[in-house]
Amino acid sequence: MWGNSSSLLNFKASLENPSAALSSWNPSSPSPCSWVGVTCRFGKALESLLLASNRFSGQIPREIQDCPMLKQLSFGNNLLTGSIPKELCGSGALENIDLSVNFLSGGIDEVFVGCTNLQQLALTNNQINGSIPEYLSNLPLMALDLDSNNFTGEIPVSLWNSTNLMEFSASYNRLGGYLPAEIGNAVSLKRLVLSDNQLRGEIPREVGKLTSLSFLNLNSNKLQGKIPRELGDCTSLTTLDLGKNNLQGQIPDRITALAQLQCLVLSYNNLSGSIPSKPSAYFHQTDMPDLSFLQHHGIFDLSHNRLTGPIPEELGDCVVVVEILLSNNHLSGQIPVSLWNSTNLMEFSASYNRLGGYLPPEIGNAVSLKRLVLSDNQLRGEIPREVGKLTSLSFLNLNSNELRGEIPTELGDSPWDIRSLPQLSLRRNPPEIGKLSNLSDLDLSDNSLSGEIPPEIGKLSNLSDLYMGMNKLSGRIPPEIGDVSLLKNFIAPSCFFRGPLPDEISRLKHLAKLDLSYNPLNCPIPKSIGELHNLTMLNLVSTELNGLIPREIGECKSLKTLMLSFNDLSGGLPLELSEIPLLSFSAEKNRLSGRLPSWIGKWKELESLLLSSNRFSGEIPHEIQFCPVLKHLSLANNLLTGLIPRELCGSGALEDIDLSVNFLSGGIEEVFVGCANLQQLALTNNEINGSIPEYLSNLMALDLDSNNFTGEIPLSLWNSTNLMEFSASYNRLGGYLPPEIGNAVSLKRLVLSDNQLRGEIPREVGKLTSLSFLNLNSNELRGEIPTELGDCTSLTTLDLGKNNLQGEIPVKITALAQLQCLVLSHNNLSGSIPSKPSAYFHQTEMPDLSFLQHRGIFDLSHNGLIGPIPEELGGCVVVVEILLSNNRLSGEIPSSLSRLTNLTNLDLSGNSLTGSIPQELGHSPKLQGLNLASNHLNGPIPKSFGLLGSLVKLNLSKNKLDGSLPASLGNLKELTHMDLSFNKLSGELPSELSKMLNLVGIYIQQNRFSGSVETLFCSSLAWKVETVNFSVNLLTGSLPRSLGNLSYLTNLDLHQNHFTGEIPSELGSLMQLELFDVSENNISGDIPTQICGLASLRFLNLAKNRLQGEVPSEGVCNDPSKAMFSGNKALCGRVIGLDCKSDEKTLLSAWGLSGIVIGSMIIVLAAVFSLRRYVTRRRVNDPEESFVDDQNLYFLSGSRSREPLSINVAMFEQPLLKVSLADIVEGTDQPTGPDFKESEGGNLVGWVVQKINRGRAVDVLDPLVVTAGFKQSMLRVLQIAVHCIAATPASRPSMLDVLKSLKEI
Q1: Where is the Leucine-rich repeat-containing N-terminal plant-type domain positioned along the sequence (predicted)?
Q2: DSSP state of 162
Q3: Phi-psi region for residue 182, left (φ > 0), alpha (ψ -120 to 50) or beta?
Q4: Deepest of 456, 667, 776, 1274, by most Cβ within 10 A of its Cβ?
């Protein structure tokens, strides 16, 4: 019996009592009613047993049923285990049971059936499972607390029909099902908490019947639908929490009428619409009748929804609001001023919205504000000084806005002490920062703040976190930063801070993270940084650091992450670094040199070592094997030599290795066997040889490009289900691609170009449905393109160019919806281009562009394709380049190509296309290259071509085009090359062409152009043209003197026209000229000596004109193999064997005449022979030029690139460059620069000669004095000077010759 002391003592003995709370329970006591936790009725019958929070362990004794009068039982907050005994309610008298916060388990299906008087049951924080039993609704329960257990199933409907139940809490369980309409029957409910369960469905409207409900929490469930407007009938509500569900729709306006509401949480839903703005009653009542259920007074949380519109002005009238949380919505407009006038507001968070406007001075009225978070908005203007009045502020985050101005130095007018500021993050900088004495976190980064960090920053002696990155802050970091003695994190990347760093930074003894990356510090790493013994992370990436890595950094014994990449550091790695317990060390892209030290093996905790793009030399140290947890190793782009050590994988932890771009040699047969966790291996650009070993089959990425690998690719590699990337281009791999290639189902990127693979492409390649990039270019593959490639539905790039593939292009390829690059050029493909409606080149948004290098290329050139160009090609909207040259295509050019708005290069040359050029092609705004040469096109050149403002190269040569040249072509300001040769064009050349100032080569030979060219060269002083070929036309008039202004001109061919007049002496200023041909015209007068004296001139043809006088005997004119004068009857001189001094008018004897004829023939034959040898040599060295017509020959020096007299058909196969010679001239150094030091003889004379030989004579002239009027004279004087310094004395002119030449200027 529990009525006597012996029974209680037996109960005590059954429990473990580590706290000795039951020490008063002893046999000597006259009555147990005086014992701790025991309450008796009338001094005899046991009425309550309250033993909570005593750390009792064991199980609940079954003998408790023997206490017939026991009403209250509390074993809460102990360590009781086991299930709850069914005998607990044996007497039926229990009214209040509290077993919460124990480790009780099992279910309660029948445990409390006998507790017929039970009013309160608390089982919180146990491990009870099973369902909530129905019988609980039959008990007179007023409060049921089942929080934090493992209850499952649905809440029994009978519970909602209880009229006694006032509190029901079952949060943090796994209850499911729906809330039924019967919930409205629980009319006595005051508190309902079902948060953190799995309830689904909608909130029933009947909840509005619960007019006594004060606290409703359904947070963190799976509820959906709209918030029922009937909740506005729950007039007693003080707390409404529906957060973290899937609720949609708008917030009902009726909620604003809940006068007693003090906490509203609707966050983390999908609510839309605006925040209710009608005059509200909620959050106004300051005196609450019942606050027993009010846990979070004054919270207004609508964050993480899709709310739009402004923040309502009325929200500022909610006087009891303490926290306003509106972050992660789509709110816009300005923050209402009324909010800043709220004296109770302690937190305002509205980050990640679209709020704009300025922060007003009224912000200083929110004197209770502790947290202000307005990051990621569109706030602009300066931070008002009134922020300094917020003396309670502990957290301020204004990052990612458009704030500007300087960091204020005095926030407010009051002399506040600022020594307790723990956290400051400046993404935009307030001036009076030093007076926010309670500030714990300030984040102003990612704004447009300017100016310097004020020295007042040093007054923030309690600051722990300082963020000011991604601003326009500049200047030096002030030495006062050292006074912020408690600073832990100083994060200020991507500003404009300059070095050197202050030594005072060493006083920051608590500093753990320092990030000054992407600032132009331009200084060495300070030695004082070694005094930061608590530093764990140092990030100085891309800060223009120079000098050595200081030894003192080895004193940072807590350093885990050291990032020094993208700087100008030099020297080796100091030994002292070996004493740092680094986890990650990166120093990529510096000038570090020397051998990699063997002490690297001391880094026992190192996980990442990134030293690529330096000047490390020697062999890879074997000691790397002693880095047991090293996962990431990059030594790429150095000068490493020797074999890759087998010990590299000694630890077996390496996951990715990059040794690319070195001089490593030898094989890898057993090198990486021990790398059991290796996922990525890059050995590109080395001298590694041998075969690819079998054991590499477990890798995810293998890059072996540009080595000397031989043999066949091992089958095990194709059987790998892990391999995602395999690249082995530019090797000497041979053999066949086997059917097993289809087993590599994870492959996304396969590059085997430039090898010796042979045989057919196996059909099994179609099984690679994940393959995004396939490049088999430049091999010896043959056979047909397998139709199964159309099953590779992820392909973005397919390159099979430069093989021996035959047959037709499979139609299934057109169904590859993600294909963005197709290269099948230089094969033997036949048939027509697939013309069915296609899916390729249509998708503008790609799911994965990581492997897409050449987007929009459609290259079928150099095959045997026939038929028309399909009209459907105009629907391939993402095409950038269409290359169909050198096929046998016929028909007309489809006008649909004009719909390709991204088209930059169109090459249809070398086909049999007919018809006229579509006018629509002129509406391709991005077109840079257009090559329609060598077809059968007729009709005029479209006037719309003048709209191609981006056009760089235009080739319409070798067609049957007629009509006049459109004046609109003069609008092509970017054009550098125009070839219209070998057509039937006629009319005068429009003067508008002179506006094409970027023109480098113009070719119009073999047409029917007529008229004068005087106006064409009116702007010649600004031209950069190098090649002009107007030969074989009907041009008339005299040669323009303005041709002498073309200072870049190297080739001028005007032969076989009807030009008259004299050769302008101004042409003698063309010091770059190499070829000059005006043969077969009607030119008269003397040959200017200036022409013959041009040092760069290599070919001169003046034959078949009406020239007269003596042929100058200098320069090229004195070399019969380079100059031609035949057909000019009035010429004389030693060069052509006719004496100009004879006054006799007798006929020559037969023998004398024969001698002249024979001599002339020898000269002509010598010239022709020299020309032939030159052409032959050009064709042997450059087969691509072999088709150029003989009259388009050009003679070039090896010192600079020249343009041919006719653009060849293949010119668009290379990328189009838009670099003019003017760009190069602007970058030329003074004579004391590098050019002068490297010139012949290392002196000024050598520098001048070098400039002339390189075709840059104009650069010698002083740009401050050179003018159009004097430029030619200055160049002529320079030419005379060059003759005076000839290498041999016999070649130098006499003083009389010099005087005569100067008088002629």
Answers
A1: 7-40
A2: -
A3: alpha
A4: 776
Three-state secondary structure readout of 523-567: CCCCHHHHHCCCCCEEECCCCCCEECCCHHHHHCCCCCEEECCCC
- What's the average model confidence in pLDDT over 403-428? 50
SS3 content of the chain, % helix, strand, coil (to 5): 25, 25, 55
What distance separates the 2 farthest-apart alpha carbons in the chain? 171
Q: 546-588: per-residue pLDDT in tens?
A: 999 999 999 999 999 999 999 999 999 999 999 999 999 999 9
The arrangement of strands across the sheet holding 866-867 comes to 866-867, 888-891, 912-913
Looking at residue 178, the DSSP 8-state letter turns out to be B
**Closest to 50 (Cα-Cα) out of 68, 58, 38, 67:** 38
> Residues 713-738, buried b or exposed e (16+ Cβ, 10 A)?
bbeebbebeebbbbbbbbbebeeebb
| Contact between 275 and 302 (Cβ < 8 Å) | yes
> Which residue from 1017, 1076, 1067, 1062 is spatially nearest to 1047, judged by alpha carbons?
1067
Q: Which residues pair with 443 in a beta bridge?
A: 397, 467
Strand order from edge to edge, sheet including 546-547: 546-547, 568-571, 591-595, 615-618, 639-643, 663-666, 687-690, 708-711, 732-733
Q: Copy the structure tokens of residue 1284.
A: 């005076």
Give the sheet arrangement for strand 127-130, strand by strand: 57-58, 79-83, 103-106, 127-130, 150-154, 174-176
pLDDT average, residue stretch 1033-1060: 94
From the list 765, 805, 773, the residue with the least C-alpha distance to 789 is: 765
Q: Which residue has the tokens 């947070």?
A: 219
Place of tokens 């078949």: 1104
Whether the per-residue pLDDT at 845 is higher than 90: the answer is no
Nearest in space to 534 (alpha carbons), one of 507, 562, 556, 563: 556
Give the number of residues written for the chain.
1305
Angle value at C-alpha 204, between 201 and 205, nearest 5 degrees: 145
d(CA 1245, CA 1): 125
Going from the C-alpha of 1199 to that of each of 247, 1242, 1254, 1255, the distances in angstroms are 74, 19, 5, 8
pLDDT, tens only, 329-369: 999 999 999 999 988 999 999 999 999 999 999 999 999 99
Query: Quick one: which of 927, 849, 842 has its CA closest to 881?
Result: 927
The H or E element containing residue 1247 is helix 1244-1253
Q: What is the pLDDT of residues 437-448, one digit of tens each?
A: 788 788 999 999
The least confident of 726-730, 766-770, 1208-1212 is 1208-1212
Q: CA–CA separation, 1055 vs 1061, rounded Å?
A: 14
Tokens of residue 1217, six digits: 């460059």
Residues whose CB is less than 8 angstroms from the CB of residue 660 and which lie 6 or more positions away in sequence, other chains included: 636, 637, 682, 683, 684, 685, 686, 703
The tokens 């891309």 sit on which residue? 542
Strand order across the beta sheet in which 200-201 lies? 200-201, 222-226, 246-249, 270-271
Q: Looking at the predicted structure, is the pLDDT value of residue 984 above 70?
A: yes
Q: Rounded CA gap, 917 and 913, in Å? A: 10
Residue type, 393: L
Residues 1106, 1112, 1113, 1115, Cα dihedral to 10°: -100
pLDDT attached to residue 5: 65
- The model's confidence at residue 7, banded by pLDDT at 50, 70 and 90, is low
Residue 126 backbone dihedrals phi, psi, to 5 degrees? -135, -160
Q: What is the mean pLDDT of residues 43-60?
A: 85
- The rounded distance, in Å, linking the Cα atoms of 1041 and 1018 is 10
Residue 512 near residue 487, CB atoms below 8 Å: no
Radius of gyration of the chain (CA): 45
